[in-house]
Write a structure and sequence with these properties.
Length: 316
């Protein structure tokens, strides 16, 4: 028994006319009659009563047609779903991101992705860069938006956005009125920094600002979230260094001052090429579009997105 025989029979049962059924199926009438006869032979029941004037269903034919319609409809839906899964048009995509992406690239990219692939469930997970790398290798996320993370033999990282590092200082401090400040001058203040284990690339880049004078740096506090670092700065606890794009989060009691020796810090798109989900390429395209828009406007988005746990303040 073949699936096409069942489809043929249901069409004949709906039309009660072999000629019309054949036209619907885009086949000629003789092969249609042959397939119906084969189906009856295999089932060992008579499904149709035929005459020169009309065709009618037998009780067995009526029963089979009523049973087959929902089955064939389910099969058709299943085949569509399988095709969409294979082509990345359906399923789930888990995205890790650092919080600075949440205020720059991510909102516009997510809106575009959901418009292009509405049947793909998008899971957003705020994680540090280090946590994202672990998540990629463990299979917990499909892709990550990381900061200052180099590629490796198995990890692909595509740069999306490069920006300056700035010093966040209390607005009452003399540095707040400066157009820029040298890293060596910042050593006069204690620093609020972030754990190296959680964001090694970013912390190494910040430390490199101070060169051989790194030993003179006084760390007042290590924090996990950039909002916490800003709170300590606002309270007069020292300074912190953040990407320029996220400084719009700061309260009026804090000023962001460019650091003249600061290198660029970058956001990148991280994947394991051998394990990319089908929808990954579409999401990367959405991120690139968002990055291009940011480059044109130079104004970061102010509408943040919640992650899967509703938390916004993952580290940089």
């Amino acid at each position: 028994m073949e699936l096409r025989q069942l489809r043929y029979f249901v069409t004949v049962a709906e039309e009660l006319h072999f000629g019309r059924a054949a036209r619907r199926l885009h086949i000629s009438q003789p092969p249609l009659s042959v397939q119906i006869q084969k189906l009856e032979s295999e089932l060992e029941v008579t499904l149709l009563r035929r005459s020169t004037r009309h065709v009618e269903l037998t009780p067995a034919g009526t029963e089979l047609a009523s049973r087959l319609r929902p089955v064939l409809a389910d099969l058709d839906e299943c085949f569509v779903d399988l095709h969409e899964l294979e082509n990345g048009q359906r399923g789930r995509l888990s995205v890790g991101f650092v919080s600075s992406a949440n205020y720059t690239l991510l909102p516009a990219a997510v809106r575009q992705f959901r418009s292009r692939l509405p049947r793909v469930a998008l899971e957003l997970r705020p994680l540090t860069s280090a946590e994202q790398i672990d998540g990629l290798y463990n299979g917990d996320i499909d892709l990550g938006i990381v900061r200052d993370t180099p590629p490796s033999a198995t990890l692909a990282v595509t740069e999306l956005l490069a920006e300056r590092l700035v010093a966040c200082v209390p607005s009452a401090h003399p540095f707040a009125t400066r157009s820029q400040v040298r890293a060596a001058e910042l050593l006069a203040l204690p620093m609020i920094t972030f754990p190296h284990s959680m964001m090694p690339g970013y912390v190494d880049q910040v430390r490199s600002l101070f060169g051989s004078a790194i030993g003179d740096l006084r760390v007042a506090q290590q924090v996990i979230h950039q909002e916490t670092a800003l709170s300590f700065v606002a309270a007069g606890g020292g300074f912190t260094v953040l990407p320029e794009s996220v400084t719009h989060l700061q309260p009026a009691s804090i000023s962001a001052v460019p650091i003249c020796e600061a290198p660029l810090t970058s956001l990148g798109f991280a994947t394991l090429p051998k394990h990319e989900a089908p929808a990954t390429a579409i999401f990367l395209d959405c991120l690139r579009n968002s990055s291009a828009h940011l480059s044109e406007t130079t104004v970061p988005e102010t509408t943040a997105l919640e992650g899967a746990d509703g938390h916004l303040s993952a580290p940089h």
